[in-house]
Every structure is written in structure tokens, then in C-alpha cells.
Protection of telomeres protein 1
Amino acid sequence: MPVVLVKIVNGLSEMPLPSIIQKEELNNLQEGVDYTNKYFQGVVVLSYPLMKLEDGTKFFKVVLQDMSNLSSPINSINVLIYGKMAEDCSRTLHHGDTFVVAGFKLAKSPTLTESGRHPCHLEVSEDAGSAVYVRGTFSRICSMILPGTESVAPKYAYTSLNQLKDGTIVNLYGVVKFFKPPYVSKGTDYCSVVTLVDPSNAKLTCTLFSGNVHSLPKIYKVGDIVRFHRIKIREYNGQMQGITSGGFASLTFDGTVGSPIIPRTSSKVYTFMEEELKTIKELRAWAASNLSISGPPAKLSDVQPMLFFDLTCQLVGKARVDGSSFLLKVWDGTKCPYPTWKVPVEERDLEGEKILLHQLRNLTADILVYDNHMQLAKSLKIGSFLRIYSIHAKQGSADNEDGSHIEFHLHGGTCYGRGIGILPENNPEVVELKGFLDSVDLGGSLDMESMSSLEAEGTFNNVTDIESHLQRCQQLPVTVLTDHQDLKNTDLKTILNSPAPQQYRIRAKLRTYKPQKLYQSVKLHCSKCNSLQEVPIGNDLGLQDSAVTALNTVFHNTSWYDSVMWTSEDQKERKIVIHFVRHNELLQHPKDTLIMIEGGTLKEMWKLAKRFKCVIPVRSVEDGLQLLDLSAPFLLQGNVKYYGCKQCSTPKPIKSLISLAAEQRPSWEPSEIAQVLGIEPLQYVFVMRFTLVDGTGPLNVYLFDYEKFFQIPASEILASNYLQQKMQMTMNTLCPPGRKLDDLPWLECFIKSYNIKDETKHQVYYQIFDTTVAEDVV
DNA sequence: TTAGGGTTTG
């Protein structure tokens, strides 16, 4: 039997044991029996320090309690572990863990054992062919934080949301469908309104009050899961309503499938047992298919005018504005693609690190908060991490001088959950944001926008400085060579009159280009057969095939993935199956997890792709899973749909992915996935025709670019308005609309000529190589 | 007591 040391914390509810081995009860253990194919399972109630025996062998001893036989006079046993396994176990095992020992030897204990303990002990080692499995319990984690709380857990009953009755006080679980972060009420308390749903399809809106903001649920986003204890149910306007009663307590959990189950609470004592772990997992799985939970919150770079959005950010400055509004200056490391409004405030009223405020001046957003939000805003600490809910990105008024700017308002009131939440430093999204903020280069290049703000701040002394800088910019070529700097320029006429193939350096102007609608320039290219094809558009075309047609869909819980099936609520009662690929028997963090989906719509797949590392649309066939027809993407990752070449691919069964899943740290690279699945991946590419002029003659050259020329990956542009705008701006710089030929900027390019011959004709084509848009243009 | 979900109009 292989040696396996598996640590499962908050993972699977069942041990991933080989089916050949069978469970043995404590009271059946007898000397002289062969336990090679048996296992014993118990909870670690005692462990001793790791020791070395006289011959140097490592030795570790634990006491396991048989939880299924607690009433028996003998309910625990010593386990002696030898060698490397002793070392591994001493590091891995903790009090309260469930420990499975397979393939052990049973021997009589040489000394008198304590009362209640079995007279024999288990001997475990790699040499004896033993295998051990460890499952950390949640109560262990709680007990580490709060020693002694796990053994006295009262048993709670939970009421489902469709069973609530007027005038009762109940315990319940729910998935957050809507919430208002705690705000100062007009009375004496903080208030938070939370709407919950659960698999009974009932809905409950709870109005929670507390003088202490920390005793209200710490909900950060829709989809979080809460457990409420002692909430009072009342009828209000013909509907059930929850309201805080004496002794109200709550736990809040991240609702993401596979993420660590760590309760957020201010309670000093709470219980959390295995059963409840199961409830959270069930609710997560239910919510994943039944609730529309938006993807990651917007960044400043995604902001669209006229919309409301939630922003996760860091506070860098704050200032009093007037009696009804207050200014928060925040950043998230990205830049809003539109000019943003700067709220004028008195220098002396602005709180925050002056140098940092200056450094971040082009990255901060001014958010004006009104009325009831002012009190909380004033109390915020500079440097803290916030999530501001339902910020209004308002188009600046047109009569204003710079009419196109965006203003950020947090209006008064709490409609739509409008408010400010303070995120703790250990919140995973804050940890991620901090990492990102640290990586932001504050040096930055001197772009036009930062120039004008510098001017406003007096760094540029007068208008002439700016004009001369502008002129200098215009003289520099807008594209540059990445190689071949030593070549001399050739004029276009000479190129046209020369035989192909050859390579040239040219200096020319871009008179026109095709396609004018830039999104039409994105194609899919097969590097094997050299074919080009259009990118399939939008809708579910090609994914119809993934419908789960048969009720007896192979519902495999195999060794390498876990499967969950849902039925959609609509009349079609569509079946959706998601298969979560495990790694070393464990479910990983969603961001590291590959999932496979049957019966999902493209929209659902996009949503899942935002949460999980990869999504592969599949269908079930008799002997397992297989890819859909290659009209559908074979993989969705991030914002990108990956397609395979129908002509050059030989799809293999999905189980070919096992080899990748078994890697130490599966990277789930699209290229690797394609390779093991027998797919020849198509690459996204920009294909454009530039008409260049230099006074000697026009020349049509083709641009065939994956990402080098525009410094924008062709694969990502279709999913990003921001990148499309950026590309449009670049093209406007290369070929400014409405400009006379004389006023067009120069491009420096490296081009190759080549021959295309067929039976009837012979033509010379030209293609741009080793050229990129200049740094100050991007 | 407060608020009782469904965007300000600065």
C-alpha cells in the first residue's frame, strides 16, 4: 500500500480512501489479526512530542478516541508512529483532527495502559506499508482560537426560511441576497438590513440593530453566507421579517465554493461543528447555481459613466467639504479611463500623507459622500481598506469646461445598499489589493494627463514649456523598431520595384487602415494549418451541445473530481452539472481550481470563469466526459474563450487532464490543457491593412500581431471596453482623423516582402515585423 | 426607537 499523508482541512466530508480497505471498530481489534487492508479512524485527543529512539528512528505517539463508541468502557487507543511518517504526522496532526490509520500492526502494549484505553496499540510506519489520512476539523480551528470551547457545544436546530412563524425566536442559515452595510440609524443604534435566501426558495429580510457595530454581521458581499442565532421572527406587511432580539449572534462566511470556511464574528464563544461545515458547503453549492452573484468588484479602470458600482479601495485622504458632504480620496491601483472630477477643498482641511497624495494624484478618485454617510466617513482612518457600495459614476455637467469628466458620488440614504464598509486587513481581497498596490509603479511615464496636472500644480512654469514638449512629441515617430536599428531607411517606391522576399526599414505615414471598426480586426489563427477564421460572436451558439440530456448522466464522483448537479428553476428544468477537479485529493482555492461544466449557458460559464481558474464545457458520454464540438470554446479562462482548430485537433478524453491535475502545482496553462486534450489551439490575432505613404508611393502592408505591436493581447480585447478604447486612441494617434497629410505623424517600421503564388497569379505582399507603438503613445 | 431593500438629483 502506498504511503499517503493527506491533510484535509475544510475539505471533503468523506476520506478519500481506497475502496479496498475496510473500517475496523475499536472493540473488534484483536492481536494476531492481519490489518493490512483495514483502517481505524479516531480523533486525536492526546499527542506527545516527536522523539528519537536509540537507533535514531523518529517516534511519535498519539492517542485516538473512537467517537462512534464513546459510551463503551474502552474508547481510545495508543498509536505509535515510526520513521518519516512520525515526523510528518507530528507536523500535521493536531488535537481534534480525525486521523485514519490504514495497514497498521496491532501489538500488546508493554506497559499497563490508562483506564478506558485499549490494551493494545497500533504500530504505524512506512516500512510496514501503512497509510495515514488526516482531516482537520473546523472545531479544531475554533479550539485553537478559543481553547476548551469544542467539548461543550450545545446542539442547535436551524429553521429553513419557508418554515418561519410569527412571534418565534429561531436559528437560521441563509445566503445573503442583499445587504446594507451597518450605518448610523436615526435612533441610538447602528442598523444593517440583510435579505437572505435558502434552498427552500423563501426570502427573509432582517432588520438588525446594535449599539455596537461589531456585533452586526460582517457581510462584505452578496453571496456571503450567514448563520443567525436567536433572531426574532415577526410578521410585517404580510411578510415574515427578522429582527434582532436579546442574545442575537451571527457568523458570516465567504460564499465561494472551495474557499476556506472561516467564520467572521465578534462573538467570543461560538460553536462550529462538522455538521455545520456541511451546511455551509451545501449552501455554497446551491448559491453557485441559483443566485446571480456578480464577478469580482469593479476597479476604477472599469468604471463606466452613468452607472453605480462597488469599489474596494484604500483611503489616502479625506476632507470636510461643507455641512452636507465630505470628501474621500481613495485608490485601487488602477486608473479611471475618463478624466475624473477633483473636488476643490481647502488645503488645511485635507487630511492624509501629503507626499503620498501628490504621488497618487493621477490614481486617486475623489468620492463625495453625503448626508447620513458623513459621520462614518469622518471616522475612517487614513490607510484603511474600504468597500464603498453603490457609488454613482455621474457624467459631469456639459456646460462645465471639461464636460466629459466623471464625478463620483455616494448619495444620501441607504437605497440599494449604499454605504461604506470597512474591510479588515486579513480579508483575502484586501490582501490581494495590498499586493497589487505595492506593485504599482508610482514613477510612471510622463503622459499628457499627468503633464496637465503638473502644470496645474506649478511644476511646469508656463504654457511655452508644455507647447515645446508637445512639439517634441510630435516629431518623434509614433512607432519604433524593436530590432534592426542599424538598417537604413528604404523609400516605398524602391520597395515596390524590388523582387521579394526582402526586409526593409521604412519611415512613412499611415494614410488609412482597414478595418475601421477595430474589433473586426481580431481573428483566430491556427499556426499549424495557417488558417484564419472569425471569432464566434456572443450567444450560446456552439454550446447547445453541452445540454445534459439524459437523466442518468454519469454522475461520477471519481478520484480526481467531485460532481454536483443542479436543476434550473425555470420551466425547462435544465440540469447543470459542475465537476470540481481536485488536487492531491483536496479541493483547492477557486482561483486555482479547474472546473468542468455540463449544461451551462455561456453566461453561466463566464460567471464561473471569473471565480475559478478555468472552465471547460463538457458533456457526459458512457465512459466519462468529453469535450464539446470545437465550434464551442474548449476552455474559458479569465476573460478569454479558447478555441481549437477543427482541422488540426484530435480531441482526447477529458481524463487526459489527470496528468496535469497530478502535477505538484498545476498551472492550468491553456497551452498545456490544449496539448493533453489533443487540441491545436487557435490564437487571437489582430489582422489589419495599413496604407503607408512617404511621398514616393503608397504601399499596402499587413499587420499580423498577437500583442507586440499594440502592446494589447488580441485575446483580451473583445472582452474589454477599456482595451478597445485604448486601441482606438492608439490608432487615433497613428492616424489622427481629419488631419492633413503633412500633419500626420511618422511611423518607423520594419517590413518583409514575400511571394504568394498560385496557378493563375503571383503577388507580392508586405507585412510589418519587429515594430511596436512608441512608449509615449501607448 | 432606529427600519421595514429597489439609487440623487448635491
Summary: DSSP finds 14 helices and 39 strands in chain A.
